[in-house]
Amino acid sequence: MIKQVDESPLEMIKLQGALDTLAFANRTIYVYTPPSYSKEESSRFPSVIVQDGNYLFVDSMSALEADFASGVTEEVIFIGIEPLEHNREYTPWRADNLMNDGGFYDGEGDVYLNMVTEGIMPYVRARYRIIEYAAQTGITGASFGGLISLYAAFQKPEFFGRFALMSSSLWYENIMDFVEQHAFTQSDMRIYMYVGEQEGVGRTIIQQFTVPNTRKAYDLLSQKIPGGRDCIRLETDPEGLHLHSYFNANFPRAIRFIYPGAKK
After folding, report:
1. CA-derived radius of gyration, the chain
2. Containing H/E element for 177?
3. Lesser CB count within 10 Å: N end or C end of the chain?
4. How much is the average pLDDT of 204-219?
């Protein structure tokens, strides 16, 4: 059953836009509408699917709304989806779990993306004024959320054309082979990638490849993306760690790149 949640734990946050909290199939969905949404009642807006609920955009909202107001970033609707289980939903195929406990990353990414594109997106689009073209629809996430967002670029080209990949888990087993072997079918794309240069440093497990694999993925994607390097950007932070604060510090820059405003 689909219902609207009456009370939001985020209702005290000061926003220029608005934030709604919805429920879809026992899952919490956060929908942020930008300041112009309530003023331009006939206008439709681009949208961005966000993994891990609202934290990427809510914790960056002051900077994001300043960019909207200045015109350097186009106003967008954020659709934050709370996961039920990261290791199951955000992994593209089954792989050994790094905990060395005999467990696995379940690899149900395709099931998750089908739920997003066939369930959540139609539900939200029926209730909000959203541009439905793939070239105006983004998807983003950090860590495993970035991994599944990149996977969506190849698996769901008819739905997504804008990608913000924040410290994506590109150490994941066989992901680099997948990227190398697959092509984009979109004609209009923009991709932003971020990684902290301290991520994986000192590790002896597969996560030590976080930064080099991100750089390699950038090179591969630059050769595949329509428009070439003008449509893809990789930014790093020499002191960056795999932490929420670093993801959020760079998130407004990601949205600025994939949705440039009139004053870019």
Report:
1. 18
2. helix 175-181
3. N
4. 94
Is pLDDT above 60 for 3?
no
**Verdict on whether the full-model pTM lies above 0.85:** yes
Cα diameter, the chain: 55
User: DSSP alpha helices (H): ranges in 109-174?
Assistant: 109-115, 121-125, 144-155
Return the residue matching tokens 């309530």. Answer: 38
Question: To which H or E segment does residue 67 belong?
Answer: helix 61-70
* Residue 196 burial (CB count, 10 A): 24
The CA distance from 75 to 65, in Å, is 8
Here the tokens at position 19 are 């934030």
The pLDDT score that the predictor gives to residue 263 is 82
Spatial distance between the Cα atoms of 50 and 163, rounded to a whole number of angstroms: 10
For 95, the enclosing helix (H) or strand (E) is strand 95-96
| CA-CA-CA-CA dihedral for 196, 192, 57, 51, to nearest 10 | -90
Other C-beta atoms closer than 10 Å to the C-beta of 176 total 17
Q: Report d(CA 148, CA 3) in Å as an integer.
A: 27
